[in-house]
């Protein structure tokens, strides 16, 4: 095939340019496979590859005949190091100790630890949610069941929402706007939000909670009375 | 270089950052020959190349705490070496045209034409590799001898990855021209 030759007169093809890296074994598996396939179907390219391997071998030969530095270089280096101001090993920081600890664990141990931690977080979130709903439910029961305010309860659904510690005021405002939500009450880091002014079916409320839970700044969202 | 050695190099660098002299000796022992050869191919002067490696490893001693591990330690060393070599070349302004310096290496063997007459094409090839421009020499060495990937060469030389590929292609083409001029026909290009 005259493709390679033709390419030389114009621009080299991508595969031609990858040949040296293929010979040196520094290509990704994908690129290596591409080059292998091209070599199999293009004899001209295969010939170029064979020629290139001579260059490869002779470059190594040439470099290997360059010798090595004398001991003078090392003496000079360590004399310079000795002349440097003394450096005292610093005590490892908490971060470096943690990094070293996790680096020492096997991948299997790490995977198990991560799973257990995730489970513990879920349980904690569930417990907090349940306790708050239970405790605050009674607090709000009086108000929400107040016959004078019953019209309010006929409006949109409510939820207890805890925002993540990183959430900024701007982000919370933006979320409230996008959900047409208002803060009914804030207590112990939890917010009772009301969404819109129309009643929703149970499925709609469940969908709303799922959507809320996916928000980056929402740590917990559970339906609330 | 194996992944295990690369990881172990990083451990050495972390120890050097803490002032561990023994770790410095191990790292030096592991890399100084290749660093010397890379530097020598750039500056073409053994004394300058020896001074270079002392400077490179002294920089490592001083900067180890700043090494972030984004690239292999060997890649970092080669990048420092290249920078130091170019600085040394700039100090010797006329080095590009300094035939005497070039001959310090080239005189060790026959001219390409003589080598052809002796049918030693390997020697001709090595002569022609030495005759490449500094830009072409360094890229050929980095890929073939130091076994650096496209990405690593781009980092060491400070050029885009596509330029690495095209520069090496044209270095090979130039090598082919030099070989042809010396009487060696290889059928490519």
Structure description:
The complex is a heterodimer of chains A (225) and B (189). With 225 residues, chain A is of the alpha+beta class. Chain A folds into two domains: 3-64; 124-224, Alpha-Beta Plaits, CATH 3.30.70. Chain A has ten helices and four strands; from the N terminus they run ααααααααβαββαβ. In chain A, strand 2 (181-187) and strand 3 form a beta hairpin. In chain A, helix 3 (29-41) packs across helix 4. The radius of gyration of chain A is 34 Å and the shape is elongated. In chain A, 20% of the residues are buried. Mean pLDDT of chain A is 78; it is low at 1-8 and 137-152. Chain B is mainly α and 189 residues long. Chain B has two domains: 1-93, RNA polymerase sigma factor, region 2, helix turn helix motif (Rna Polymerase Sigma Factor, Chain: A), CATH 1.10.1740.10; 105-183, Winged helix-like DNA-binding domain superfamily/Winged helix DNA-binding domain (Arc Repressor Mutant, subunit A). In chain B, helix 1 packs across helix 2 (21-43) and helix 8 crosses helix 10. The longest helix of chain B has 23 residues, at 21-43. Chain B is elongated, with a radius of gyration of 18 Å. Chain B starts with a helix and ends in an 8-residue tail after the last helix. Mean pLDDT of chain B is 86; it is low at 104-108.
In short:
Chain A is α+β, with helices and mostly antiparallel strands and 225 residues long. Chain A is built from 10 helices and 4 strands.
- Fraction of residues of chain A in helices? 55-70%
Unreliable stretches of chain B:
104-108
Give the full name of the CATH homologous superfamily of the largest domain in chain B: RNA polymerase sigma factor, region 2, helix turn helix motif
The class by helix and strand makeup of chain B works out as mainly alpha
Major sheet of chain A, described briefly?
4 strands, antiparallel
Strand order of the largest sheet of chain A: 2-3-1-4
The total of beta strands of chain B comes to 0
């Amino acid at each position: 095939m005259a493709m390679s030759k033709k390419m030389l007169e114009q621009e080299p093809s991508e595969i031609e340019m990858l040949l040296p890296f293929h010979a040196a074994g520094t290509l990704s598996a994908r690129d290596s496979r591409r080059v292998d396939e091209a070599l199999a179907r293009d004899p001209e390219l295969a010939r170029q590859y064979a020629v290139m391997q001579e260059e490869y071998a002779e470059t190594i030969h040439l470099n290997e005949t360059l010798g090595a530095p004398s001991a003078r270089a090392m003496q000079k280096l360590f004399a310079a190091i000795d002349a440097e101001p003394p450096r005292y090993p610093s005590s490892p920081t908490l971060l470096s100790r943690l990094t070293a600890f996790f680096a020492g664990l096997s991948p299997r141990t790490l995977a198990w630890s991560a799973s257990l931690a995730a489970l513990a977080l879920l349980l904690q979130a569930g417990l907090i949610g349940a306790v708050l709903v239970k405790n605050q439910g009674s607090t709000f029961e009086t108000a929400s069941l107040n016959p004078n305010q019953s019209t309010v309860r006929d409006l949109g659904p409510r939820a207890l929402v805890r925002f993540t510690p990183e959430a900024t005021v701007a982000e919370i405002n933006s979320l409230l706007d996008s959900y047409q939500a208002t803060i009914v009450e804030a207590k112990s880091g939890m917010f009772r939000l009301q969404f819109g002014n129309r009643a929703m079916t149970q499925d709609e409320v469940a969908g709303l909670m799922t959507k809320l839970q996916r928000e980056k700044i929402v740590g917990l969202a559970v339906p609330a009375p | 270089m194996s992944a295990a050695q690369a990881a172990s190099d990083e451990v050495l660098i972390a120890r050097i950052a803490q002032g561990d002299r023994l770790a410095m000796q191990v790292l030096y022992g592991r890399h100084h020959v290749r660093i010397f050869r890379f530097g020598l191919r750039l500056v073409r002067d053994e004394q300058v190349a020896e001074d270079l490696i002392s400077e490179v490893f002294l920089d490592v001693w001083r900067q180890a705490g700043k090494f972030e591990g984004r690239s292999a330690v060997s890649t970092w060393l080669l990048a420092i070496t290249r920078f130091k070599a170019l600085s040394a070349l700039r100090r010797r302004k006329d080095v590009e045209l300094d035939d005497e310096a070039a001959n310090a290496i080239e005189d060790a063997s026959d001219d390409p034409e003589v080598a052809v007459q002796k049918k030693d094409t390997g020697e001709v090839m090595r002569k022609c590799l030495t005759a490449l421009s500094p830009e072409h020499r360094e890229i050929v060495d980095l890929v073939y001898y130091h076994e650096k990937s496209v990405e690593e060469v781009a980092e060491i030389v400070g050029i885009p990855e596509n330029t690495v590929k095209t520069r090496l292609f044209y270095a090979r083409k130039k090598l082919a021209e030099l070989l042809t001029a010396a009487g060696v026909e290889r059928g490519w290009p």
